[in-house]
Known about the structure:
The complex is a heterodimer of chains A (about 300) and B (about 160). By secondary structure, chain A is α+β, with helices and mostly antiparallel strands.
Amino acid sequence: GRQGGESSEPDNGRVPPTPSSPSPAAALPDPGLAQTIQSLLLSRLGLQSQPNPRPDVPVPQYLLDLYRFHQQQYHLLEDPTFSFPSHHIQQANTIRSFHHSEPFGDNTKVRDQTRVHISFNLSSIPQDETVLSAELRLLRSQAASLGPGPHRLNLYLSKHHEDPEPTMLETRLLTSGLHGIKAGSFWEAFTLKPDLLRKAHGGTGSLGFLLEVRPENSTASPDQSSSSAAGDNQTEQHQERHLRVCRSVGQDDHSWAQERPLLVTYSHDGHGEPLVKHGRRTSGNSKWIKARKGSNMKTKR
Amino acid sequence: SGKGHNRDQGWGKTRKVGYSMKSWGDDKGEVSWSDRGRVKRNGSPAKLKRLSRGRCRRHPLHVDFRDVGWHKWIIAPSGYDAFFCLGECRYPLADHMNASSHAVVQTMVNSVNGAVPRACCVPTSLSPIALLYLDNHDRVVLKNYQDMVVESCGC
């Protein structure tokens, strides 16, 4: 019954007494009733039970920025290159994030630094939820300069490391610099067709990709190439790192969580409105830019 | 507001006994259907305020997730303003009380037959909130939940 800041509510949060109002002591529900109510509410929220996450689970910055942008807290956005994915969210009311499954043991036996396989376990998406779109996000950092000349990133759909016939999803020419990006890092986002997610969701629940980075117009063999899809890994001789796909030696969980590949799904559970109402203006980052420039823009809910 | 506009839904009986909607005042007095023959319009300000407070309207209610231990899995927000509806739906049902036609009828019937309850004070408009939380697999989810905040109440 407490709330601050709403002047239109004259009683300042006090509930007017009524004959049926219980006393404060009597208002405490018995544990069984409280448990029942909680279970009912969790069910309404689409959860089978109360989540019990391990402490200090790192939260991807992208999800935090998404939430803050949605709440119009533009001044709290931390990624200067953040762009609200309006086209993904038009119909979706749920956004889920997935980190890739890291292989056990070290990766020193991975010799081919131009090709890396990553996979995501999507089995936690409820079966009654329809995935409408998704994107794979990979970090390029300033420290990972591309070296001379343009490079190309090839993205394949690949069932496993040894998949002999990976399916090409997209090829993208990467510019050799990250001009105008002060933070020194930039997320490459690859839009994925919902069919891919649906197949993975309906099957094993696993979705794998093969990433390949090669110098454009290069005749060098992969072993001779200085480009790397695997990040810095343990191979210190590979100074020119491109994509943060493998964890650095000694890198802590929190830091790694902000750099590792992220798969984001946009879905709808069949209940309620999408995160962005139709007609609401969310074009690009124009509002955010205005807010950052200190204009006196008034925001509306 | 009791200005008399849009008040043609069965108020002829009221006028017949000499009390137009305008004469009821603007939500400042307790006037029930059964009281229509003995209304005093000049009640004391304190009494009028008390009576006005008992009317159906939105009240503040802040839900703090920490209080129920949900802060362990809900990342943001830490709580939200949910509001609730409380108050009586007494005659006359002013415009701002968002009374349905059925509530008007039920209030009329209640005035002549106490066995029929008054109309209830309920949310007439609700809005969603977005929750950022961790699921059972330690994965971060941002989800929009509908009908979580009371925007307005009515009879």
